[in-house]
Amino acid sequence: MKIFVASLPFKLEENDIRETFEEYGEVSSVKLVLDKETGRKKGFGFVEMPDDEQAKKAIEDLNGLEIFGRAIAVTQAEEKPNGGRRPGGFGGDRGGSFSKGGYQKGGRDAGSY
């Protein structure tokens, strides 16, 4: 089971997280998410445990645990829809040019500019 862990103190390392979760069973992986530009920790990550019952017990016991003055949030990770891709953004799904009315401003068709 994949577990989402948030509100992590920035000084925690992956090994610290692994040791905490290993008290509940085997841990197959730990991944702390880093900022792509700075390389700094973003304060959340993921833990994978192969045994669902052990993972559920870890979630139950560790959610709200205070570490270095911060209560961590521990939940079952949700699968991303669309294979991990987010809808929208700059993917060109706005539908055309000004003349075709694909862009709007203030709720009106911008094709009349």
From TrEMBL:
Q: Where is the RRM domain?
A: 1-79
Provide ranges: composition bias, Gly residues. Answer: 85-105
The ranges of region (Disordered) come to: 76-113
- What's a Gene Ontology MF term here? RNA binding
Q: Which domain of life is it from?
A: Bacteria
InterPro entries (UniProt xref): Nucleotide-bd_a/b_plait_sf, RBD_domain_sf, RRM_dom, SLIRP/GR-RBP-like
Q: Which UniProt keywords apply?
A: RNA-binding
**Protein name per UniProt:** RNA recognition motif-containing protein
| Organism, scientific name | Arcticibacter pallidicorallinus
